[in-house]
Design brief:
It contains eight helices and 20 strands. By secondary structure, it is an alpha+beta fold. The protein is globular and about 75 Å long. The two termini are 15 Å apart.
């Protein structure tokens, strides 16, 4: 799958394939462009090839086929240390025997940069990650989030055209991870360079990236901005991986004007806004937050069915309500907890109407 951007591409991949041995294809004919100044995410489950793809951009792995260009230059045969990129690893890899400032300046020192310039660039990099007050601390005196910032500063001090981040937040606890997401976005916007992040965390990708490449089994299934990927996934895999989804098996039964008519499991015959040329067996899906549940019978202009509450999961700001509607899979509806109350709005055993606007239905041909 290929994708083009309106801004000039700083990273271009064409037909990139990586094989290990004769039977394992880790990356399968990936073509994409990453724009200069873009925050780009490679998202997918473990083993989908996203880290291998990042390592090929960095030069730590060599493609079995295809070409990589960075800043308009072919990277074939170019060593990692000669590429205009720098990489931040999941494990931080800070030197325990060096201060924060010496950690950050180490790469400049070994390449022979004069000390006055090292000092100036280290100060600039520490200011960017808001660690200038900790310049003389040792790594064992830092928190996990501070160590991650040191790793970022050490990468940024080299002034790369592209910063590559391999699961950079996975070692942090949930609250710190959320704070660091905001920090990374702020940092990327302030330095204005291209960030390419690998993650298996959909919330991480959705909250930070300008665009996301969704990967499965070595292939890129869809490239889109976060809202488009979430609201208009192009296949069942993307729909199911990004957020939660209620999926019904269906069959296209015909058309009525600009609407497609489907026969759906548990829903009967319904007409949906025509968004694809789907035919035969398909899936139709709706996000849990699009559902409305209640005692009152919905209007005939909504897709509707009856269900019984079998479980309620409380999350503070909202509750996830699981309903048995006689379909193959349980239906999930998100219920916002808008009132300040300890009494649940619905209870296990309640028989309720479930409904949604037909326009909120996704038609998934594959």
């Amino acid at each position: 799958m290929s994708d083009s951007t309106t801004s000039p591409a700083i990273v271009s991949l064409r037909g990139i394939t990586k094989r290990f041995g004769t039977s394992v294809v880790a990356v399968d004919a990936v073509s994409l462009d990453i724009a200069e100044g873009e925050f780009f995410a490679l998202l997918g489950p473990s083993g989908c090839g996203k880290t291998t793809l990042l390592r090929m951009i960095a030069g730590f792995e060599h493609p079995s086929a295809g070409a990589i260009a960075i800043d308009g230059e072919d990277m074939t045969g170019v060593d990692p240390n000669r590429r205009p990129v720098n990489m931040v690893f999941q494990s931080y890899a800070v030197f325990p025997h060096l201060t924060v400032a010496r950690n950050v300046g180490y790469g400049l020192k070994v390449t022979g940069v004069p000390k006055p310039e090292i000092d100036a660039r280290v100060a600039e990099a520490l200011s960017l990650v808001q660690l200038e007050h900790l310049a003389e601390r040792m790594p064992d005196q830092l928190s996990g989030g501070q160590k991650q910032r040191v790793a970022l500063a050490r990468a940024l001090v080299k002034r790369p055209r592209v910063l590559l981040l391999d699961e950079p937040l996975s070692a942090l606890d949930a609250k710190l991870r959320e704070a660091m997401r905001l920090e990374l976005v702020r940092l990327q916007q302030s330095v204005g360079i291209t960030f390419v992040i690998v993650t298996h965390d959909q919330n991480e990708a959705l909250s930070m990236a300008d665009r996301i490449a969704m990967m499965e089994a070595g292939k890129v299934r869809q490239i889109a901005p976060p809202a488009e990927l979430y609201e208009f996934p192009n296949c069942r895999f993307v729909a199911d991986f990004i957020g939660k989804m209620n999926l019904f098996e269906a069959r296209v039964a015909g058309a009525e004007g600009d609407r497609v008519v489907v026969e759906a499991e548990g829903l009967g015959r319904i007409a949906l806004p025509h968004r694809s040329a789907a035919s035969g067996e398909i899936g139709i899906a709706v996000r849990p937050e699009k559902l409305r549940i209640g005692d009152a019978e919905p209007g005939a202009d909504r897709v509707r069915l009856r269900g019984r509450v079998v479980e309620v999961a409380y999350y503070g700001d909202e509750s996830h309500v699981f309903l048995d509607a006689g379909t193959k899979t349980m239906i999930v509806a998100n219920l916002p907890n808008e009132a300040r109350s300890t009494r649940p709005r619905v209870a296990i055993g309640d028989a309720l109407w479930i409904s949604w606007d037909p326009a909120d239905t996704l038609v998934l041909a594959e």
